[in-house]
Amino acid sequence: MGELTSAVLGGESRMWIGGRWVEAVSGEFVDVTDPATGEVVGRVPKGGGKDAARAIDAAFSAFPGWSRRTGAERASVLKRWAEAIRNHRQEISRILTLEQGKPLAESLEEADGAADFVEWYAEEAKRICGETLPGSRGNQRILVIRQPVGVAALITPWNYPATMVTRKMAAALAAGCTVVLKPASQTPLTAVALLKLLEEAGLPPGAANLVTGEAGAIGREMMADPRVRKVSFTGSTETGKKLIRASAERVKRLSLELGGNAPLIVFPDSDLERAVEATIGNKFENAGQMCNGINVLYVHESIVDRFSERLVSRVQSLRVGRGTEPGVRMGPLIDERNLRKVEALVEDAVRKGARVLTGGCRLTGEPHRSGTFYAPTVIGDVTLEMRLVHEEIFGPVAPVVPFREEGEVLARVNATPYGLAAYVFTRDVGRVFRMAENLEFGMVAVNGTSLSVPQAPFGGIKESGQGREGGRHGMEEFLHLKYISLNL
Ligand code: ADP
């Protein structure tokens, strides 16, 4: 075990506030458990409103110093952070798998992805530029400058405990904001590890702060304090809506990355093998717990049997188990609550006439007995009356729905309140453009299913959220424009 792992696993971690590692005001701790075994793998302070207030104080005090550093100075801290994450990728991925459940190979990929976001924003910190505009009078000069919004509160989910932290935090710090991070209660240990590395990278005290514990109380404090000028949240649409309501009081800026209902649409002219592989890569990554994960597979009626057959045989080869075991391709679901939701959606479909082609149940025998495992599942004969077509499954269940016409499938997938990601498989160039332009989603992937890269604006429309993360657009979320009119 390395130094980082032994500091985080098995013992009591601390929150990072004002450059010091501290306990919660309550003095209490909460357990963090391994979803594959139910065992406690670490403990974090049970912070609440008062702890959030202390963290906001620290971030507010650190703001003038951090925001006035040059972009290059901020970049050098971030670069060291990216390097430290890469140097500790094995340790981070072990912590991540133990608290989250995904296979080590996926955790390693996530640790590398987390470092990539930090590196990208380190580079971008140097490129926060303004504009000059022509004046309306001969003696007028107009300048537009970009300034950091101030203290930013970052609330992250449990499905990507490393990349969701760095995608938000690196953008905010690069912009010159100071931050308070509240990681998901299920997966705070990865955040503790990442911030230990950020401290070593030389971030000044208070520029980033970590608060763990009671989400509701911490969230309320973040929304109530007028010094928090921006909230960036990734999580459920339900909690996102609560934050929108709470933000009204202080007119806070929000970026929200919420739920989705991503369709995969496979046309008969597509490369079937590639479509099946890409489906496996997306639908069963992280046991299907991905906000841009495929929810429903729409496959043209002329190829649906062939497609389903291949998919089933690939799905049956996926090994399910503890993420720390070599060769395991899929881990447990995050907790009992999510497992029950997946079970309920499948039961509803079966009751309404769907056919389970493989899987379709919780795994209860050894070695899955003490974890929250669900079998990788494919379901056929799915109809629009079934809940899993309309609700976000967030589990390893692939419902297959046949379609006949391009227009019909387009209308059907656009008729959801969500709009995060859509996937299309076709080799017809005209159709590529028709679909990409008419799909009402923030992101469309054609002939592939992976989307999250540092340079691209990740995010949704409709009830899937607002604002973007990643790329220069992601940094704009932490900057405001100031217009300066000069009269000579
Ligand atoms: P999920 O249902 O997928 O766990 P949530 O939206 O409940 O998603 O949680 C996502 C993140 O939001 C987590 O970090 C969680 O602790 C936090 N959270 C949950 N409820 C609130 C709230 N009322 N205010 C602020 N943050 C919250």
From TrEMBL:
- Pfam families, alphabetically? Aldedh
* Active-site residues annotated for this sequence: 257
Keyword terms of this UniProt record: Oxidoreductase
Would I find Ion transport among this entry's keywords?
no
Q: Which CDD domains match?
A: ALDH_F5_SSADH_GabD (cd07103)
Name the protein family.
Belongs to the aldehyde dehydrogenase family.
What is the protein name for this chain?
Succinate semialdehyde dehydrogenase
